[in-house]
Write a structure and sequence with these properties.
single chain, alpha/beta, TIM Barrel, eight-stranded parallel barrel, three-stranded antiparallel sheet
Amino acid sequence: MSVRNAITETYGCRLPVFAFAHSAEVVAAVTRAGGIGVLGALDMTAEALDAALTYIDEHVDGLPYGVDIVVPAGTVDAGADLTFAAALAAIPERHKRFAEDLLRAHGVPAVGDDYEYPIVKAVGLDVSEDSHAHVEVALSHPVRLIVNALGPPPSDVVELAHDRDVKVGALIGSGRHVEAQLRRNVDLLVAQGTEAGGHTGEVATMVLVPEVVRAVAGRVPVLAAGGIGSGRQMLAALALGAAGVWTGTMWLTSKEAESHIDPVTRQNLLAARSTDTVRSKSMSGKPMRQLRNAWTDAWDGPDSPGCLPAPLQGIVHHAAIPRFRAARTADLCGYPAGQVIGQFGQPRTVAELMAALEGEFDDAGRQIVRTLSPSAR
């Protein structure tokens, strides 16, 4: 069964499947397989982003792909102008001690008083300079889509993209966010349910997507995100009114992503079941669905001093990451992941994952057609 709608016609893709990934290899492979890969750029320097996009350009033969950035619109976060040094100084000593005690309890070696916290690029810090550099780099490549992951994209970014005939999308977690986004002239909305990995709201995809579709009233296409990693789930999203799907978790265990995730964390992802994720502030200071582990349990537990707001909690966590990864402490190695992670316990190539999704979509669609056909009764 083929899909022909606003997404396939606008972007020239074979399947309305968008794939968010931090790996240029995954992005390129999804695009080659008929979808649209979208590269997550937040943690990259402008130079690294340029190199990653150059790799994609060389491996997609002109097929469509996009870039996911974070450009705060005004003061989305109260600490939007906070510098890293000021943020580090604002972390209470009791939170630092709690983190140290937790690491020590799990066998992670202590560090000296002269330990330098790794600089973090995170929501809540002054990322505007880097973000606009990301936009400039992205628009110097033949990208077809820029997606803003934090609130409505700034008007100047939308204008720059539209001047280059590049579409602009945004993620939302509530129907209440629709009008603010459309006032910025976005071309695409991603309705992300609470099942999704990363920063999410509280509303489930099954409820959120129809809510957003009704609020949009046909003005722009809507993608469904959260809990989607198979053809049946994709078909369900289209039945809810979405024009396509936004996926992320299903690519984390792909063979192309292997070099981008440390081996211990990768094993945790492969072993995870659908019940092994939790929505917690312990990684970034904002509610984020991630693998549940000793870190999330401790910070969300009764003895915790409480998670700090963004970006302070993110600084604490990022300072701990290289230490527990170096110690190969599996029970502390987490990662943003959605509930569909339980469907991907075996490493497969992106091409295999896309073929499985397409085949199941086809089978499920034909089953529905037979169910609805009078001749089948």
